[in-house]
Amino acid sequence: MFRVKRNSRISAAASVVVSAAALAVTLAPSAHAAAPTDAEITAALQRHNDGTWTQADVDLVRSVPELAAIVPDVTRPQEITTKSVQFSADGTAVDAANGEPLSEAQLAEVMPGPDAQISNPGEAVTTPAETEAAPGAGGFGIRITGGSWKMTHITHTHRSYTGDVIFRYHTYAKFNYGGGKVRAWGERYDDFTDENSSVLQVKIGTKRITDTKSATPASSATSKMKREVDLCVLKYGCYATLHPWAQVRVYGTGSTKIDGSGV
User: Fold this and answer.
1) Strand order in the sheet with 125-127
2) Rounded to whole angstroms, how far apart are CA atoms 62 and 46?
3) Which is higher by pLDDT, 30 or 101?
4) Helix intervals (H) in 6-145
5) How many CB atoms lie within 10 A of CB 202?
6) In whole angstroms, what is the distance from residue 199 CA to residue 10 CA?
């Protein structure tokens, strides 16, 4: 069971859609914008949730500061970062570029945190082996003579219309490669960083929607994880459900290709 971060104060029972009447009473529009009606607020939030929003919906949300601070900015490009760490033969984490050991601070940016949940082998689905070779990887089998371990950390950051972080979704995948093949998967995790505890609620008891890894050894291999998240306001309940997911395809060269979404 994936648990809510320690600083989250959202009740697990909060699952109702935001009341338009409550919003109309408590969310004051900016001084120069006409107050949206109950029906307009409800419709705009619904379209934000189901992906059918219009520019008028965006303008409405932005006109109400309290809404702008908690609703994900659907106009913002996806914010995705990826970091990785190489492991030497003795298991020491090193810089892939120069082989120098990493500091504790550098390692903390890549490795799973204490609240990350490891993939359960009994629940993960293994998909068929892949045959895609790394782009431009001709002759790599000559350069790689032994297996190496590498950890990849992908972060999807979700921000509101005011630019504040609502939450970050992290996935981690460790893999072994060499001789032009992805030889094996190591530990795989996912995690949420609760940056705004008045907004984020992870549904208690909800398992990962997706947890797959393709079979190894193979020229390439793919790991994918997906979760369900309710975005809630402490006082008013939940106004949107998101399904963040992240995927990494790894190659026998040690290179990677990422994909994912927050909706």
Assistant:
1) 125-127, 210-214, 220-226, 245-251, 256-261
2) 15
3) 101
4) 20-26, 38-50, 55-63, 65-68, 104-108, 140-143
5) 20
6) 8
